[in-house]
């Protein structure tokens, strides 16, 4: 039976813009993420996808509405233990090598590795074994993003939120990247939510959420009629 991990009710988010005044990014969004979910969050740029992910991941607070994590424990336990977050642009620590970046959530989560076997295995699955000892500045944008995904997977989270993780990859590499993620999560209850403009990626997810001008206008399962 699926476990409810995150519930958002009436979520709204406003930002102050010096020139435009108050800008509304999210409006009255209701959503729920359950264990094992595979959700593609789609919509045009500026529709609120990133803001919604940040709120669901506890990185931002809604202006209105509430977000709760019934299946993930307290707010303080969310990251890095239960939520793995992959940002739109690579967010690696510049002073750490690729393998050290992947190991970091294990250390922060109190699971300091005796060796780097877990991190090396993850890097290898993304075709990055030969760059394990390189610093982020020595990696391409696509390599850095794959390291970031490996880092998100390292500690075994219950939920992965990924914001345009294939945005810096060509279409073939993006599909291979996605193959690795789905294979890693196969047979697990880990929920995956990916904000994406890549229709090929979105089509492989069981559920599609569509954002339009800050509103979640449709949440549809792949097997439902359009």
From TrEMBL:
SMART domains: AAA. One of its GO terms (molecular function) is ATP binding. Keywords: ATP-binding, Nucleotide-binding. It comes from Mesorhizobium qingshengii. Residues 6-226 form the ABC transporter domain. Belongs to the ABC transporter superfamily. The lineage of its organism: Bacteria, Pseudomonadati, Pseudomonadota, Alphaproteobacteria, Hyphomicrobiales. It comes from the Bacteria. This is ABC transporter ATP-binding protein.
């Amino acid at each position: 039976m699926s476990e409810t991990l995150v519930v958002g009710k009436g979520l709204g988010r406003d930002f102050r813009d010096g020139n435009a005044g108050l800008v509304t990014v999210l409006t009255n969004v209701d959503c729920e993420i359950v264990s094992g979910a595979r959700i593609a969050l789609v919509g045009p740029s500026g529709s609120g996808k990133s803001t919604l992910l940040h709120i669901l991941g506890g990185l931002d607070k809604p202006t209105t509405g509430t977000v709760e994590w019934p299946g993930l424990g307290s707010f303080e336990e969310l990251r890095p233990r239960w939520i793995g977050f992959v940002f739109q642009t690579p967010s690696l620590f510049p002073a750490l090598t690729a393998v050290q970046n992947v190991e970091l959530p294990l250390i922060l989560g109190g699971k300091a590795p005796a060796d780097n076997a877990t991190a090396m295995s993850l890097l290898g699955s993304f075709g990055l074994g030969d760059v394990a000892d390189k610093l982020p500045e020595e990696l391409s944008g696509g390599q850095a993003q794959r390291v970031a995904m490996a880092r998100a997977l390292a500690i075994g989270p219950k939920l992965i939120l990924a914001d345009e993780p294939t945005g810096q990859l060509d279409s073939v590499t993006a599909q291979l990247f996605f193959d690795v993620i789905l294979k890693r999560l196969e047979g697990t209850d880990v929920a995956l939510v990916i904000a994406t403009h890549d229709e090929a990626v979105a089509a492989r997810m069981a559920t599609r959420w569509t954002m339009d001008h800050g509103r979640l206008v449709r949440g549809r399962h792949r097997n439902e009629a359009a």
